[in-house]
Amino acid sequence: MEEHEKAYYQNRRGKPDFLIKSLKWFVVISWLLMVTALLIFGAAIPEVESFFDRKFDMKLISNWNQTVSLYLFYMMIVWFCISVIGLVINSKRCRRKDDEFRVSLIFLCIISVFGIIVYLFLF
User: Fold this and answer.
1) pTM of the entire structure?
2) For residue 88, what are the domain limits?
């Protein structure tokens, strides 16, 4: 590369703009929504009978909690939207070879889509 081409291709980007900084928050919010969804999922699933339940003849809830499951479904939709917005911003701002693509947003988006599909088939 000649000297005048190096000057043309030098990094003119000063520091990260608001959108690049917001990507970190999209990832954090998506992970928090995933943890919250796992906790809600734990509250919505039917109870499994254990040895002590049989021994003491305890009554168990044998079906899904519908209202909590609906909250979980809505949370997964919000989670999917936040992940997609983060992916769109990341794809628009990831043009140079030293820019990084947030793999966790892809992972979280796939998990939310899977959860939405499972909910639609189960309920």
Assistant:
1) 0.77
2) 26-122
